[in-house]
Amino acid sequence: MPTITPIKRRDSLILIGILLLAGWMRLGRAGIVEYFHDDAMLATLALEMADGERFPITGILSSTGIPNPPTSVYVMAIPFSISSDPNTAIHFVMLLNVVGVGLLWLIAHRYFGLVVGIVAGILYAVNPWAVLFSRKIWAQDFHTPFILLGIFLLLYGFYEIQQRSRSKILAQIFAVPILLFAFQIHFAAWALTPIILIILWVGRNQIYWRALFVSLVLCVLTISPYLLGLTQTLETDPTRITDAAGRSTASDGISLTAKSVVDTVFLSSGYGLETWVAPDQQTNLQVTYQPFVFAGFVMTAIMLLGIVIVFKTNLRLLVFLCCWAFLPQIALIPNWTPVYIHYFIPSIPAMMLIVGVGAAWVMSQSRITWTFGIFIGVVLVASQIVTWHRTLDFLEINHVPYPGFTTPIADLNELHDDLKDSDDVLVISQGMAWNLHHEVAVWDTLLWDDVACVRTMIGDGYAVFPAQPFDVVIAPDAPADPVANLYQTDQPVQFDTRIGDNGFVVYEWDTTPNWAVASINPIDPILFDNAVQLTGYALSDSKVYLEWQLPQQTKGADYQYSAQSFDANGNRVAQLDKTFWHGRHWCEDDRLITWGALPLESNTSTLRVSMYQLGTGKLVGQFFNAEVLDELGNPAGQYAEIVLDENR
Q: How many CA within 13 A on the CB side of residue 192?
């Protein structure tokens, strides 16, 4: 029969202290938090859901190319329904993880005793890895609290031996659905599925079958949106999963790797943070807390002792705890897919619990070991706190190249405060694809309710002229002298970020700049069925310049455009095919000029311009033209034909 430690009044005071410590670590210095591509894409979907634009049945794409389940979007829609400001969602994630610390304390206290609860709670509150992965809008950062809730209900409902009660029945109903909901937030968490089977088997005599039937129904409902979304994905792209499996498998075959073992040592000890946040500057960061490295390895040693103690006292709990703490890492020792340390975030609480078991045993041996244990504990906690804050000191000041710790949101907030009163904003960056380039999603969400139109454009081949005053932001990753310095003025405003980074440069425009690169020949507007109008052209320096009038934003309208030159005999002389400005960036009445290489011959007489979309999934290799419309709005062909001026 499991031993249950009841919660007394003094325990509530201890819990409050642990939660305050966890809150200080997670909520403190909240501006030193990443807000990068995955965070902003997830924020976009959550904002669209909160605004009632759509109900998603898939999340953002995973690194393998398979869409994630939508549960992460559902969670993030909660803070975004309160405020469109990503900072609100960041604080929501932090508070959610403070609750997670309280849940671990509850599990450890109830099933392992007072001392284990205190030690596990405090160590989880200050573990630098646990704190790092508790602070931003990233699916991996907020699934663990739900997993902890599901585990507690699983233990309460099926592991404890007690009389039937309403709370026990409710625990049996909701435990597995909550875990399935949590596992969907990030694929790596599915490795913990065996812990459900273990507890169900251990508590098989405690099962109320009606409750389990209701639980099964809820499980089906919990996973149904994703099953529907994945089905729709496979209908349009039947090879999506097999292609992803091929990309994930190591190219040189499966072999054994120690990386997941090393990651386990890092996570349990709190050591090695520099390998993730500053991979190119590890030495520079590590020296700031080098004297405390030894303390982290003491943690790993105590964890190994804890495993031995649980083995001697409760073999069933040992299997459960080891599966929770180590099964995901064991599953990835064969490197059948790339291994990342964030795959093992849900295991950190279990590691801290096992450390708590080892520490409690040491302290129970004698007064000397109790005193020694308290001393070691204080040193360990202090070292973890110092390690975390010195890491923040470093990241706040020093630019860290990607894939290290990206620009802190505090620096982005300063620029946001300057832009929020703008009518329109144009961001010039290295790319304009929402699913590939971080500046697109970042600024669209940071300015969601503040600016009517936010656009992102690359530095060559496109120039946009808004119909009203606008600000231009040159991002740090933009090429030098973007758009041939079209948007530069004599009064730039520099927003510095960290030492070694270029920062952001802002130019304010009350009227649109003058386009002097090529003289545009106006034509009668030619309307395509995507509401884009072709209004002019120019031929110069073996380039073709096309002038367009844009409609309102049309997300997902990602077109290519083609310009083909023909001689008087109808023979094609040259052709340009290029990506059109994505519909996500269109703003009504914007004037757009695009250009690209188109070698010209003296006998060129006609220019044909078309727009088309490329097929995806099972339609790869096909293209779908936008129709040209006549004056009555009827289809009139698939290209616009322009007779060239002989004196061009």
A: 30
CB 458 within 8 A of CB 594: no
Confidence of residue 648 (pLDDT cuts 50, 70, 90): low
| 86-124 per-position pLDDT tens digit | 999 999 999 999 999 999 999 999 999 999 999 999 999
Whether 647 has a pLDDT exceeding 50, the answer reads no
| Rounded Cα distance, 62 and 139, in Å | 11
405 closest CA partner among 496, 277, 286, 497: 277
The per-residue pLDDT for range 292-311, each reduced to its tens digit, is 667 777 888 899 999 999 98
- Name which of 311, 302, 306 is nearest 269 in CA terms: 302
CA 639 to CA 563: how far, in whole Å?
9
Q: Which of 82-86, 347-351, 517-521 has the lowest mean pLDDT?
A: 517-521
Q: What is the DSSP letter of 639?
A: S
The SS3 assignment for 234 reads helix
CA distances from 604 to 192, 537, 639 (A): 66, 15, 17
Q: Which CATH superfamily is domain 521-643 in?
A: Interleukin-17 receptor A/B, fibronectin-III-like domain 2 (2.60.40.2150)
Name 402's Cβ contacts closer than 8 Å, sequence gap at least 6: none
The predicted model scores a pTM of 0.95
Place of tokens 């300063």: 414
Sign of the dihedral through C-alpha 174, 180, 183, 184: negative
Alpha helical stretches, state H, 1-85: 9-27, 37-50, 71-82
Domain ranges of the chain: 9-397, 418-509, 521-643
Residue 129 in 3-state DSSP?
A: helix
